[in-house]
Amino acid sequence: MATPLEDVGKQVWRGALFLADYLLFQRDLFQGRTVLELGAGTGFTSIIAATAAQTVYCTDVGADLLAMCQRNIALNSHLTAPGGGGVKVRELDWLKDDLCTDPEVPFSWSEEDISDLYGHTTILLAAEVFYDDDLTDALFKTLFRLAHRLKNACTAILSVEKRLNFTLSHLDVTCEAYDHFRACLRQLEQLQDGQLRFAVEPVEAAFPQRLEYERIRQLVGALAGRC
């Protein structure tokens, strides 16, 4: 059965487990770093990142979803890196250019948060958020906008599962959402804006599997580094 669009963030998808395995394999890459996760859903990947990172900004939209993230993070707070800043749950809407700073809005950003985000973030994460073309476009625009504002060079680590479907428009089995994701990656790599450039490379699925899920060949990872 298909998951309703409004509920896709309320479960842990296979691509998030795949990304989490990669994070566990690359723990040294996250040691003491500031990390931003986009479209965090349950907060699972942010929790895994926080086992090594200094601070993780776990972001999504919707007060109920963010409250669920907060509960999950609190239940797993014993896993965060010793001496780290833990996981901060914040709202980040890809359809808006600016972060919400209204103190009356749940999970809004403080000026201190924003300064830390732009001043220290070097790793961005996004797992299984490429199921809708409009949202995929919005995410890549957000990545580009953040790359302009971050003080340091950054790397985005993305994961997705290629889901094959029969479509009437093609009268064949296709993976349109994945094809659109790949097209956006190519556009990002070809884009040059002053000194801002991106290098894209695949994540080879040769790293150990530590979590329980079926690692099918349709699981795909990519690194997009600002250079």
TrEMBL record:
Any one GO cellular component localisation term in the record: nucleus
Superkingdom of the source species: Eukaryota
A single GO BP: methylation
InterPro entries noted in UniProt: Methyltransf_16 (IPR019410), METTL22 (IPR038899), SAM-dependent_MTases_sf (IPR029063)
Keyword tags: Methyltransferase, Nucleus, Phosphoprotein, S-adenosyl-L-methionine, Transferase
A Pfam family of this chain: Methyltransf_16
Molecular function GO terms recorded: protein methyltransferase activity
UniProt cross-references to SUPFAM superfamilies, sorted A to Z: S-adenosyl-L-methionine-dependent methyltransferases
Compartments, as annotated in UniProt: Nucleus
Catalytic activity: L-lysyl-[protein] + 3 S-adenosyl-L-methionine = N(6),N(6),N(6)-trimethyl-L-lysyl-[protein] + 3 S-adenosyl-L-homocysteine + 3 H(+)
Family: Belongs to the methyltransferase superfamily. METTL22 family.
Record text on subunit structure and interactions: Interacts with members of the heat shock protein 90 and 70 families; these proteins probably are methylation substrates.
Function according to Swiss-Prot or TrEMBL: Protein N-lysine methyltransferase.
Protein name: Methyltransferase-like protein 22
Organism of provenance: Myotis myotis
UniProt lineage: Eukaryota, Metazoa, Chordata, Craniata, Vertebrata
